[in-house]
Amino acid sequence: MIKEDRVEIISKGLFLAVILFLSTVINLLIQRDIQNLKAIGTFLIPIILGYCLIGIFIRWLVYRNTLIKDGYHIFSGAAAIYWIFIFTAIIMFCAALIPKFIRDIITVNIGILLLVWFLNYLYLKRIATELNSGIKYHLRVLIEDLPEKPQSEGRFIGEIENYCKRNNLSLEILEYGIPSKIKMNNTLYVVKLGQYYDIMGGIVYTLEFHNIVSNE
């Protein structure tokens, strides 16, 4: 794990912690639960530290999952739905052993996490739809999401080859490296390594196919 990754995990984890903490406070304000609001005020620092640790841990899990190869993603795709149900069942079982006040807070926080996950899913789905439709109209820049950051030129070229195989495109490597120059379906492209942030603040690495004619 490089320094940038650690900074990313901590900063995005703290942001998530703020969201969860505010959702708890807002929920208590809506319920006008003054007694428990005072309790939170009494133990404010330990509670905030706890949320920070939870947020950072969740961000670490997201980061750890991005390092795992495609075939071993246990928290992505349809598998993520099963894990959500499993964790929810475990939490609900444990909830029977804790006070209602804490149980309500956990329920609200889980709801917020599911909402964030769902919004992230919709966001990525919209991007994928736009990119797929863009191919039909021959946009000058094509973007393909990667499961992880290529750690070498060989891995980078391998991702380009995999993309062409999946889409039945001809490929000729003209210049190796990052970026590289290729001829794909008899069209010249410069392929760069790009990135963007998803709605949860995670880094998504991409292949950017720049048509040389566009000079971008």
Explain what this protein looks like in three dimensions.
This protein is 61% helix and 16% strand. The chain is built from six helices and five strands. Strands 1-5-4-3-2 form a five-stranded antiparallel beta sheet. The protein folds into two domains: 3-67 and 74-135, no CATH class; 138-211, no CATH class. With 216 residues, the protein is an alpha+beta fold. The protein starts with a helix and ends in a 5-residue tail after the last strand.
Number of domains: 2
Low-pLDDT stretches: 69-73, 134-139
Structural class: alpha+beta
**Helical fraction:** 55-70%
Query: Any idea what the radius of gyration is?
Result: 22 Å
Distance between the termini: 31 Å
Question: Gist?
Answer:
The protein is an alpha+beta fold and 216 residues long.
Blueprint of the fold:
Elements: H1 3-31, H2 34-42, H3 44-67, H4 78-95, H5 100-136, E1 141-145, H6 153-166, E2 171-175, E3 180-184, E4 187-197, E5 203-211
Antiparallel strand pairs: 1-5, 2-3, 3-4, 4-5
What labels would you give this structure?
five-stranded antiparallel sheet; 6 helices
